[in-house]
Write a structure and sequence with these properties.
The chain contains 17 helices and 18 strands. The chain is of the alpha/beta class. Helix 6 (about 135-145) runs parallel beside helix 13 (about 330-345) and helix 7 packs across helix 8. It is globular. Bound molecules: pyridoxal-5'-phosphate.
């Protein structure tokens, strides 16, 4: 159990350098300058740990000189100075990845968000009159212009919009819903549960696969508050199915003097994207009275719940008592306004989500081939790199039926498993999240953002245990900074 004999006799602990000498090492100078107290405590903690491990009889070869201890402390400071929530590289090909923050924002939205974050803003202040204003009204004109809706409101997210709409317009009364739409969206958002929380009573009609106009007709009674339709966004029923078209649904509701509401989920606004998803404009044109959708799905903006439709219904929601608890924050409004401007000005090509969904198989094949070439150059014989056809997904509960043709780059490490390689990729800086397909790491270029490709090559080469070769960035920019 005896520890190694140090230079100073029997007790190796006497060989441990002083904290002062470690702190003077040039490797720590930036940390000592920026955070002297914190860095001194880090060094003290490391020296205490070394002392304890030596006392237990552990051999710590190469750890006891000043340079090694300073490097250890610098690594610790580097690690703990990194934010816990930070950018990752999405190599999965799932465009709206719920676990990876859904929609990346357009550059202009980021710039506006930063400007508003840094100082004061006219969040609830009408600059023309000098009087109090309403925060959500900052974007309502833009929403109306872009969607054609007669009125608009914004809440914290779409779950809040669905809840508040039901609560405000149907509490204590009945809501008619098709059994085919009593869905779970994920993350514990279930239409029947939200309905129950809102105080509305669910009146189910039809069957899982078929619901007819006559089913709706029979369900109306004195207690009916509205007809609700949910876009079953994350699955599709195939085969012997029947659904009431939106026009008819609105018709039936109006014939009985109640509104028709649609929880659209993703809510496609873009007109020029060929996706089999219901569009906001189509719902409104069909006579749906209220359309609810997310800001950070196919719209490509920040997390938000967007309420569009009949002015009296929108106003009731806006002024509902719980509205304050579900209100939208100023950073969201800043990003949402900028995103909506891109729609208004016909600049949707600048919205990352739409750009990614719209990428052609030919472009993606070229990207995959280029990435594969760079990877082969960087990893040599440490992995086998191939390109093959595959499918990406829109994700976020959109277009579940519609795999998007893509080409993926697959990486099979010469030593070790794909699983352990994927672990090392997640430990990269920035972390890389990739799928595993047939025992190989799969990188889908569809969801790579500008600058990601170079970083990915560096991180994969490092994860495969070689030197990274030339990198795109200096040491200082490694901590989550973005390239233009
Ligand atoms: C995603 C989704 C929701 C929840 O929206 P959030 O913005 O995540 O709160 C509700 N309904 C449908 C149909 C959805 O697809």
């Amino acid at each position: 159990m005896a520890g190694p004999k140090g230079a100073f006799g029997a007790d190796p602990r006497r060989a441990i350098p002083s904290a002062e000498r470690v702190l003077e090492d040039p490797q720590l100078s930036i940390w000592v300058k920026a955070t002297p107290g914190r860095t001194a405590r880090t060094v003290a903690r490391i020296l205490a740990e070394v002392r304890e491990r030596l006392a237990r009889g552990e051999a710590l070869p190469g750890t006891l000189d000043v340079g090694a201890l300073a490097a250890w402390a610098a690594r610790e400071r580097e690690r703990e100075s990194r934010p816990i929530l930070r950018p990752v590289i999405n190599a999965t090909g799932v465009v709206l990845h719920t676990n990876l923050g859904r929609a990346p924002l357009a550059e202009e939205a980021v710039v506006n968000l930063q400007a508003v974050a840094r100082g004061y803003s006219n969040l609830e202040f009408d600059l023309a009159s000098g009087e109090r204003g309403h925060r959500a009204s900052l974007v309502t004109d833009l929403l109306k212009e872009v969607t054609g809706a007669p009125a608009a409101h914004v809440l914290n997210n779409n779950a809040a919009a669905v809840f508040l709409a039901l609560r405000t317009l149907a509490s204590g009364r009945e809501v008619i819903v098709s059994r085919g739409e009593l869905v779970e969206i994920g993350g514990s958002f279930r239409i029947p549960d939200v309905m129950a929380e809102s105080g509305a009573r669910l009146r189910e009609v039809g069957t899982t696969n078929r619901t007819h106009r006559s089913d709706y007709e029979r369900a109306f009674g004195p207690d009916t508050a509205l007809v609700f339709k949910a876009h079953p966004s994350n699955f599709r029923i195939r085969g012997f199915t029947a659904d009431v078209p939106l026009e008819e649904l609105a018709d039936v509701a109006h014939a009985h003097g109640v509104p028709a509401i649609m929880d659209l989920g993703s809510g496609l606004l873009a007109k020029d994207l060929a996706l089999d998803e219901p569009r906001v404009a189509d719902c409104l044109a069909a006579g749906i009275d209220l359309v609810l959708l997310s800001g950070d799905k196919l719209l490509g903006g920040p997390q938000a719940g967007i309420v569009l439709g009949r002015p009296d219904l929108v106003e009731a929601i806006r002024t509902a008592p719980l509205s304050r608890a579900l209100r939208v924050d100023k950073l969201t409004l800043a990003a949402l306004e900028s995103t909506l401007r891109l729609y208004r000005d016909g600049r949707t090509a600048e919205i990352p989500t739409l750009r990614m969904v719209g990428r052609t198989p030919e472009e993606l094949r070229r990207d995959a081939e280029r990435l594969a070439r760079k990877l082969r150059g960087a990893v040599r014989d440490r992995a086998e790199i191939r390109v093959k056809s595959d499918a990406s997904q829109v994700g976020g509960g959109s277009a579940p039926d519609l795999p998007l043709s893509t080409s993926i780059v697959t990486v099979k490490p010469a030593a070790g498993s794909a699983m352990s390689l994927s672990e090392r990729l997640r430990a990269g800086e920035p972390p890389v999240v990739a799928r595993i397909v047939d025992g190989r790491i799969a990188v889908d270029p569809r969801t790579l953002l500008p600058g990601d490709e170079t970083r990915l090559v560096r991180i994969l080469a490092q994860a495969l245990g070689g030197d990274a070769g030339p990198t795109d960035e200096g040491a200082g920019s490694a901590r989550g900074s973005r390239e233009p």
